[in-house]
Amino acid sequence: MTAAAGSGQRPARPRQSLIVPAGLLAFLVITWLSLSDQFGIGFDLGAIIEDITNGGRILITESDSAAQRGLLVPNWAFLPRTVDPMLETFKMAVVASVVGCTVALPVAFTVSRVTAPNGVVLFLGRTVLSVVRAIPDLLYALMFVAAVGIGPLAGIVALVFFNIGVVAKLLSETVDGVDPGPIEAARAGGGNRTQTVRWAVLPQVLPNYVAYSLYTFELNIRASTVIGIVGAGGIGNLLFTQYRFFNWSNVSIVVVTLFVFVLLIELISIWLRRRLV
Amino acid sequence: MAGAAERPHPPTHAKRNLALLGAALLVGWAAVTVDVDPSEILDLPGGVALLFREMFLDPGPDWSYLPTALEGMIESLQLAWVGTVLGAILSIPLGFVGAKNVSSGGVSNVVRQLLNAIRAFPEVVLAVAIMIPIAGLGPVAGALAIGLHSIGTLGKLTAEVIEGIDPGPVEAARAAGGGSILVQRWGVLPQVLPEIVAFWLYRFEINIRAAAVLGVVGAGGIGFSLQQTISFHRYSLAGTAVIVVVLVTIAVDTVSGWVRRRIIEGAGAKRVDADAIAHPELAEVVTGPVERP
Amino acid sequence: MIRFENASVTYPGGVHALKDVTLDIRDGEMLIIVGLSGAGKSTLIRVINGLVPLSGGDVKIDGVSVRHAGSRQLREIRSKIGMIFQTFNLVKRTTVLNNVLMGRLYGAGTLRSLFAWYRPEDIEIAMQALERVDIVEKAYVRASNLSGGQQQRVGIARALAQQPKIILADEPVASLDPPTSHVVMRDLQRINRELGITTIVNLHFLDLAKVYGERIIGMRGGELVYDGTAAQADERVFRDIYGRSLTADDVMSEAATAAATL
Lengths: 277, 293, 262
Hints:
heterotrimer, B: mainly alpha, MetI-like fold, 75% helix, C: alpha/beta, Rossmann fold, six-stranded mixed β-sheet, 10 strands, globular
């Protein structure tokens, strides 16, 4: 008691919470199980590195066919054949975005705490929406191809469901956070639920809705490459047929076209968002 | 009325109307020229109803397929997990290098563009075009595809989070004589780690959806079962598999979402809506001018 | 005529916000409610248009029960009651005119308002309401570009666009500076006198209450503790209502009040 006169006792070091070490342990166990050959996917880093070094053959190989000289030797003669499927992908994305985002608007108002008509509808709506969101785009495509046959229609419907999931979720969360003042004002003036949503809520979330819709359009361009793989139309179809015949030089061209197209759409979309929002 | 002002004329919105007309024309053109027959649209509800009935009602799901479906879904979860871990590990250094306040402007630009380029390709395309040729058919190719795609999104997010940090602690660590790596370890990491971990979990939730379908192209998981049962019209089996996908996905979403909220709240970081920002393209919009006072 | 018959409100948390209030408000009256925050002023106002449901007793407007009105009838009752809020409650992202047209929602019907096909007479009513509060020149301006006082005048215009018989104002000047507060209070007073609209205003500032009120009622702990004319309400009365001696926070700046009453 000589140095710091009157000072209280030094506090004991607070006990460390067990959450962080427990979380770390859980992480390590799950990762180890997932990597292991016996319980998991059999992830062997050495083998992968070996594969990567051997993988060179898909990058460049000798071949008589211009379509099969490897990813790094694109077959430019194939370029014109990508135009029509890419255009189809674009049209599919446009139609699906418009339909999906239109349907998503009332859905979002149904599954937001702020605008839902009552608790039962809110609960049911949220349950249905989480099922819709749990099904991946490609699985939708598989099912709709089975239901209506191969072609762009199956792809469009698959994208529509995918879009409803994305936009309704994002928008309902935005609606949850709107300023409640105008809602009270609309109700006080004798407005019903539809009118309240239209005039007190929609103007508040409109910029977000536009942004989500444009974003979904970008997602659709990307997703429609995937759904084409199961026969739902568009550029994915072309990609997968070329891949199946190991036409790496053609695959390369498709991938490049796709990349340029996605980038272009993204640039336009960003520009539009800046103008509109 | 005393000193009544003139009523203003309503604005004409000529530009806006022109833009709307253009958009309507584009949509009309797409709808008319897309290769869909009107009769197909009429057949759509019936076809979907029939499929739905066979999968879920009559004859409905065949539960003897449950073990196979569960096994496939577990493999999907595992490859999603491995892919997310790979993406997370590799995205940290890229995120630091991609942040303007940590590295130089030129370098961060190049890294950001690279990350954008990676994000442009869906996992399935990465699996088909790169990973299956390299690693062969199977879940490892799927995990690698998911990992590569995740680097793109997680790297961009990490960089953005780091750019948004409070510069105070970094200066403090620097003032105390810490070298550059030390500055980053003790000045930056604690601030951003909770948000970044929340993103990883969110990414894992998204990756499960990708992992559930990678099997369609032979990259492991339940996707293979889905593709086989549906293409061979074994709809009872397909119904079981779809139910497994939906229930497991929702269950993992719920648990992961709960953990995410705990992490974010525990760190006292209120500003992040992990869901919104994990769609990186939306970040600027969501945090943007919603309300202009 | 608004008649409170033993009106009581208990919130889900168990708070008794309104206890057995019985009160008559005559048509065309300018009534000011004073009391501490939490005294039940806002609740008293909101049971009139049913924004807060009653848990006991009743409120009748021209003999029609608010408590027993179905949702359709309640909307009809509300359409005749304009409401003005402390935080204005405008949709900031849209135009002033669109905000005022929110007062026409009931009159226009669902389909018309959904697609913004308002009848010309609805737009005329909205414009006249804006003219009455001298802000018609801002009709096509975004509400977010207006000052606080201007926003509150738009709020008043929105209430007027309902062509109401009653106006409820919940702390209409609490977010405004003293000079603007007087502008807004004078607007309310003028509307009350010129159009004969029953006007019920919650106020925190005693001096404003005395200047603009004809009749003042005092609330404390959810109960009605004073009901009389503004002239009778002296400092002792206010001390009773507040249950403590008055402080500088209870009056708006003396100078500004004096300037306004000159």
